[in-house]
Amino acid sequence: STCQRKGQVCGHDGREYSSECAALAEKMSIDYRGPCIRRRPTGDDKTGCSSITCQPLPSENCKGIVPPNSCCPICGVAIKLVYSQRMLDQVVEAIQSMEPATISKVAQKLQEHIKTAECDVSTYLDEDFTIVALIFPNIPRPSSLQIEACYQEAMKLQSLVEQRSPTLVTEIPLSALTGSYLVQPMSNSKSSGSVKFIDTFLQIMIVLVVMRTLMAGNIT
């Protein structure tokens, strides 16, 4: 895919890169253009991203997922991977490996399990010490089929992690992954929250009506 060789960008890992090409060369997806800012969440701006200008999504077919600890949506899938540092240390010690299992190596190994050439994997460590894996199309204007292909690749990776597949646990950087879950689109999470609120409200109203009926029966 083409990229811009000039102009600072801020990666999803919170690091600044000299250009879009420099970030992509290190397998890091871009949160926004320009230097990384120190976000200061407030009551009106809970994410601290109000001063950030996000680039438009590359296609109208994109759902728009905002990765954890980021400002701008991506056209892809975000998966949070839970790992055990103790398990990883035991594996490394058992085979006396001299190479540390870095986040970039996790991305490299995950990429090897992606069979669709139009999909890339980017990983970074979140503030809660889980690994965030982003699977997204690597072409400028992906079609709905290409976006769906990357989604299916992400689902396959998540399934391999959840099942502790031998194809993963035999590889050092991936052997310590113990669980995973999808990051849902913001619109979906908001709507589900509204549904839960309405459902809870209705339950409370039903209880109040029943109690009032019982009390009225006792009075009469």
From TrEMBL:
Pfam families: Kazal_2. GO terms for molecular function: metalloendopeptidase inhibitor activity. Residues 1-38 form the Kazal-like domain. CDD domains: KAZAL_FS (cd00104). It comes from the Eukaryota. GO terms for cellular component: plasma membrane. InterPro entries: Kazal_dom, Kazal_dom_sf, RECK. One of its GO terms (biological process) is extracellular matrix organization. This is Reversion-inducing cysteine-rich protein with Kazal motifs. It comes from Trichonephila clavata.
